[in-house]
């Protein structure tokens, strides 16, 4: 078994990667969808996976979640329960693309890549890191309100994008993601504990922001995704339903983003000195504009 971060192309037949420019057209977002994202800071309802694909991913999620997996040491983070509430559970990890063929290849899913390219303003798309968020039935914990970039200030400039994709149907009852529309224009706020108090971020908000704090739930069928801006405030409530809520997250940034630290960017990743371009084994280029133009 090998560290799959050394391989920067699809290694399975799970997805068909376009070979010609016009083959990308079927995956393009509409102008209306891009406008909605720019106005609200998020976009939901984007189909990324068919049933056969998300069933493969669910199987491999069970495999990589095993503490005894022979490549477990390759995770950047692994929390079998990151919840601050002893009565709830939130499984959260980073780095499974290094271990699972299916989660490795989902980086090169053309439906994901084209949407990311468009929502980044048609810049090259470079991988940042992946995440798994799993809330078991009956006692799944919260993901507190937060802005993603508040955890990513070690990279500049801010030209990042997050994709959240469900492996189960995501509903209000089982803890689907919620957004605060327009909050991507509020600037960078202080960061709360990700699995801590749900409303912790409100301590750092102005009266005007609190008045505009109107959560919108985004329910999704399995295989469908949301995308959001790095400053969009989002979170998810507990899962008290009888169904699990499993999801994976793909975080990317525009090609040309720089390291802003002389410390580790992710655990186990060689240091990229401050001011140098984010690239190399752990930050592969997924898409360049010329692929859509040839």
From TrEMBL:
<keyword id="KW-0223">Dioxygenase</keyword>
<keyword id="KW-0560">Oxidoreductase</keyword>
<dbReference type="GO" id="GO:0051213">
    <property type="term" value="F:dioxygenase activity"/>
</dbReference>
<dbReference type="Pfam" id="PF05721">
    <property type="entry name" value="PhyH"/>
</dbReference>
<protein>
    <submittedName>
        <fullName>Phytanoyl-CoA dioxygenase family protein</fullName>
    </submittedName>
</protein>
<dbReference type="InterPro" id="IPR008775">
    <property type="entry name" value="Phytyl_CoA_dOase-like"/>
</dbReference>
């Amino acid at each position: 078994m090998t560290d799959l971060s050394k391989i920067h192309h699809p290694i399975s037949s799970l997805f068909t990667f376009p070979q010609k420019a016009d083959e990308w057209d079927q995956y393009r977002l509409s102008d209306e969808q891009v406008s909605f994202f720019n106005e609200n800071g998020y976009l939901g309802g984007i189909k990324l996976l068919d049933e056969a694909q998300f069933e493969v991913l669910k199987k491999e999620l069970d495999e990589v979640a095993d503490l005894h997996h022979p490549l477990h040491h390759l995770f950047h983070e692994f929390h079998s329960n990151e919840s601050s509430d002893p009565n709830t559970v939130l499984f959260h990890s980073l780095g499974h693309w290094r271990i699972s063929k299916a989660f490795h290849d989902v980086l090169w899913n053309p439906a994901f890549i084209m949407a990311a390219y468009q929502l980044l303003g048609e810049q090259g798309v470079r991988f940042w890191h992946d995440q798994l968020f799993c809330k078991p039935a009956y006692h799944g914990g919260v993901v507190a309100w937060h802005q993603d970039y508040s955890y990513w200030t070690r990279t500049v400039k801010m030209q990042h994008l997050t994709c959240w994709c469900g492996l189960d149907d995501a509903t209000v009852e089982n803890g689907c993601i919620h957004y605060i529309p327009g909050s991507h224009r509020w600037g960078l706020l202080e960061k709360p504990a990700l699995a801590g108090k749900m409303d912790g971020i409100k301590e750092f908000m102005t009266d005007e922001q609190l008045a505009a704090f109107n959560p919108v739930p985004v329910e999704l069928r399995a295989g469908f995704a949301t995308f959001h801006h790095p400053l969009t405030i989002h979170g998810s409530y507990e899962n008290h339903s009888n169904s699990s809520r499993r999801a994976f997250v793909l975080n990317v940034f525009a090609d040309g983003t720089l390291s802003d630290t002389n410390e580790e960017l992710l655990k186990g990743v060689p240091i990229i000195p401050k001011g140098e371009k984010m690239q190399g084994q752990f930050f592969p280029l997924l898409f360049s504009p010329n692929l859509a133009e040839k």
